[in-house]
Amino acid sequence: SGFGSDFGSGGSGGGKLDPGLIMEQVKVQIAVANAQELLQRMTDKCFRKCIGKPGGALDNSEQKCIAMCMDRYMDSWNTVSRAYNSRLQRERANM
Amino acid sequence: RWRRGGTGRDRGDTASAMDAPSAPGLGGADPQLQRFIEVETQKQRFQQLVHQMTELCWEKCMDKPGPKLDSRAETCFVNCVERFIDTSQFILNRLEQTQKSKSAFSESLSD
Q1: Which GO terms describe its biological process (chain A) (predicted)?
Q2: Quick check: B61 contacting A, CB < 8 Å?
Q3: Where are the domains of chain A?
Q4: What is the ipTM of this complex?
């Protein structure tokens, strides 16, 4: 009663585990890990930018700041991603 | 019979699935899986650097978060990425040079 026998299309032949399924699962895990990484760094940066002396609750201006900060952090991340990608392509073109 | 693919770089006991694509046992028998691991590892290196540079450049380029990313900040981020890569390359090049001159020195000593 192989594990792969219920799922596999038998693509790799002979294995108990379906590589296609493994690859999809790994991709999902990677995506989750990246989202967590992004969230963790965003939280760190926005806490530093928006929260001064911590009060008894987040007031309205702090909440507004955090919301804007999140959007700006995403903008920054995308800008960096594009710039890095361009640089890599330029390096490859020069090789 | 395990085939060592990829760059063949092996970091011994610090190796993990993410940074040792050539490690035997990780899809070494299945070329499709091996290829997948190589591609995903490459993608992850890219992602990690984007995370790292975003964090660093945020400190250098961002004042108070506003309603949008103004063009000055955007330019700063782009420059920041370029200079970071330049710095990384500079360090590697200079390290290589100092290593070369060191080994030339020690070779001449042992003659």
Answers
A1: protein insertion into mitochondrial inner membrane; protein transport
A2: yes
A3: 20-51+59-94
A4: 0.80
The burial of B84, by beta-carbon neighbours within 10 Å (0-12 exposed, 13-18 middle, 19 or more buried), is given as: buried
Write down the pTM of the prediction. Answer: 0.74
Cβ-proximal residues to A90 (8 Å cutoff; 6+ apart), any chain: none
Question: How does pLDDT run across B82-105, given as a tens digit for each residue?
Answer: 999 999 999 999 999 998 888 766
* Closest chain A residue by Cα to residue B64: A49
- pLDDT tens digits for B35-58? 999 999 999 999 999 999 999 999
Q: Let me know: does B50 contact A81? Beta carbons within 8 Å.
A: yes
Q: Find the residue in B nearest to A83 (Cα).
A: B78
CA distance A60 to B4: 57
User: B66 — contact with chain A (CB < 8 Å)?
Assistant: yes
Q: How far is B12 from chain A (nearest CA, A)?
A: 23
- CA distance to partner chain A, nearest, from residue B34 (Å): 10
**Does pLDDT of B7 surpass 70?**
no
pLDDT in tens, A37-75: 999 999 999 999 999 999 999 999 999 999 999 999 999
* CA B21 to the chain's CA centroid: 14
- State which fold the B31-109 domain adopts: Helix Hairpins (1.10.287)
Q: Spell out the CATH class of A20-51+59-94.
A: mainly alpha
Q: Which of A79, A91, A92 to mutate to test the interface with B (most CBs of B within 10 A)?
A: A79
